[in-house]
Structure formats: structure tokens, C-alpha cells
Amino acid sequence: MTLALETTDLKVQLRLDGDWLTLCDLSRLLPGRGVAALLPDGRQAALFRDRAGELYAVDNRDPFAGAAVLSRGLLGTHRGRPYVASPLLKQRFDLLDGRCLDDETVQVRTYEVRAAQGARSTRS
User: Fold this and answer.
1) What is the pTM of this model?
2) Gap between the Cα atoms of 102 and 86, Å rounded
């Protein structure tokens, strides 16, 4: 059986320096899975959509391993807060504030992310 992707004109946008950068169609984010997005400065963001439809974005680079792999991590919750566990060394990063749940001295950058109509970047 083949499932069709949902059809929507909603785009995933990430806030960078006051601008909203359009990254992809919302339908590209499957619940429970992440995707990597290349940012204009060459860094990568890991984008996630949980099963409730909430969107999250963090830096894709695992600070422990140095590899851009967090988009391939597993989503979960700890004390009601969403996290992604690195696929390499399994450290968990809070998707709301970037704190490492396993080493309080480490953190990844988080980004404001939204689903919005249209495909152009806007300043707001």
C-alpha cells in the first residue's frame, strides 16, 4: 500500500536574524522524523514535527561527536518536554531550549520555527 503525502500550501519557516526563511513544504516533515536544512551561512538546522503537529528546530551538529546528525535522532519526551536523542552517542537535547539533558554544560542552538502560507521570506 502506498500512502499519499498530505497536500498543503503551508511552508516551514525558520527565523534568522529577524527574517523568516522558507525551508520546505510542511508535508516534507513526517511526524516523529527529522530533516536537515542547509542555512544561508552554511550551517544546518534539524527540523522536527512531532505527532501532535508541533514544529521544532535546533542546530543539526551534535556537539559531542562534531557530526551533523541530530536530524536523524529519535524524538521523545522527558518530564513533559520534547527532546531529540543523538543517533551517535545518545545524548538528549531539549527541543525547546537546546539544553543537553545528560550534561548541563552543553547546549545546542534552537530556532523559532513556524508553518506559514506562501514561499517568500518576510521581515517581521
Assistant:
1) 0.87
2) 11
Q: Cα separation of 37 and 64, whole Å?
A: 20
Which residue in 45, 21, 5 sits closest to 121, CA to CA? 21
- pLDDT tens figures, 13-32: 999 999 999 999 999 999 99
| C-alpha closest to that of 112 among 10, 8, 21 | 21
Q: Which amino acid is at 53?
A: G
Closest CA to 103 of 56, 62, 60: 62
Residue 14: count of CB within 10 angstroms of its CB: 20
3-class SS shares of the chain: helix, strand, coil, % to 5: 5, 45, 50
* DSSP of 51-90: TT--EEEEESB-TTT-SB-GGGSEEEEETTEEEEE-TTT-
Residue 22 has a CB neighbour count (10 Å cut-off) of: 15
In the numeric block, which cell numbers belong to residue 53? 503537529
C-alpha cell at 35: 530533516
